[in-house]
Write a structure and sequence with these properties.
6 helices; 20 strands; about 25% strand; globular; binds N-oxalylglycine; binds manganese (II) ion
Length: about 325
């Protein structure tokens, strides 16, 4: 892509600064940028080129003050790829969510029935659809109603390129070429999925194998790909060895210095690259109302490039702010 302007992108730096009317301001964290001067309802090809470059470089984009209908969200997301359609749920039918691409993420109940997913309990660290063979690519959340600041309904993210790039050499050696069997039975609220069968030995459950070291199809850089922690196993290990290795990887990957915590305001649109990040949310006050609309596109089947060990680090984690 060519972006002729005052924006800076000297290799190995990342795009930032002003490009025409659009401003890309890195967030004071190991990932993320705020985009200013852009109305997502009026996104054109040139605006998308800039947005997409910033997305690959910063992993997460925040656009505040947006007023997006579901149709507007679908129009933005469609530019990032093919939709990964969420299941049609009873809540969706009951609450007339017309666009099959849109999921409601909310704790609000009407007549005792939830209008959306994820409630107000803890949502554990995860990447979206990591329990499928093809994982999610870009995921986007648009905040329609948010609890007051301080209510604890923030979303935390971590840069998994930075987690790989800073992993101690001894651990890097152990996980190059290794795969994790990702559990499909439990969701991020730790509940058994509808129709799933609980098994005692996680090695015997259903779920895809994904490489621990995942080479990004667009950036060419590696990230740690961990999915979720519970009931995941490193293939070819005893359960004890697997648990010890996964605990070490998770302890490293979730360190706050790799992350950004988003404190939501109404009208915020946050979109992130699910292929190289993880996220979580704490439990929050059930009396507070939180309503988000979400959509996502398909990513890819994670792979480790044959020359992964020789790939350069992703520049965002090293950005001098
Ligand atoms: C999601 C998700 C957490 C939150 O929508 O993918 O994990 O903060 N949401 O609502
Ligand atoms: Mn999620």
């Amino acid at each position: 892509m060519t972006v002729a302007s005052s924006a800076v992108r000297d290799t190995p730096a990342v795009i930032r600064g002003r490009v025409g009317d659009i401003e890309i301001i890195p967030l004071p964290a190991a990932m993320g940028a705020e985009i200013r001067g852009l109305d997502l309802r009026k996104l054109d090809d040139r605006g998308f080129d800039i947005l997409h470059r910033a997305y690959l470089d910063h992993l997460l984009l925040l656009v505040r003050g947006q007023k997006l209908s579901d149709a507007d969200m679908v129009a933005v997301a469609r530019r990032f790829g093919e939709f990964e359609l969420p299941p049609v749920t009873a809540e969706k039918v009951a609450h007339h969510v017309e666009h099959p691409e849109i999921t409601v993420v909310s704790n609000v109940r009407v007549g005792g029935a939830p209008i959306g997913e994820l409630g107000d309990g803890e949502v554990i660290w995860h990447s979206d659809y990591s329990f499928r063979r093809v994982i999610a690519g870009m995921r986007m959340l648009h905040a329609l109603e948010v609890p007051p600041e301080g209510a604890g309904a923030n979303t935390e993210f971590r840069n998994m390129y930075a987690a790989w790039d800073t992993l101690p050499e001894s651990l890097k050696k152990r996980v190059l070429g290794a795969t994790i069997k990702h559990d499909t039975a439990y969701d991020t609220n730790r509940k058994l999925r509808h129709g799933a069968v609980a098994v005692d030995d996680p090695r015997l459950g259903d779920g895809p194998d994904h490489p621990v070291v995942s080479t990004h199809p667009d950036s060419g850089c590696n990230s740690l790909f961990l999915g979720r922690r519970p009931r995941h196993v490193v293939n070819g290990c005893t359960l004890e060895e697997s648990d010890a290795l996964l605990d070490a990887l998770w302890a490293h990957a979730t360190q706050p210095q790799f992350g950004y915590t988003h404190v939501w305001r109404e009208g915020d649109t946050v979109l992130w690259d699910n292929r190289c990040t993880i996220h979580r949310r704490g439990a929050f006050n059930p009396a507070a109302r939180r309503v988000m609309h979400a959509t996502q596109v398909r990513g890819h089947q994670p792979f480790e490039a044959p020359d992964a060990a020789a790939r350069p680090p992703h520049p965002r984690g090293q950005l001098q702010l």
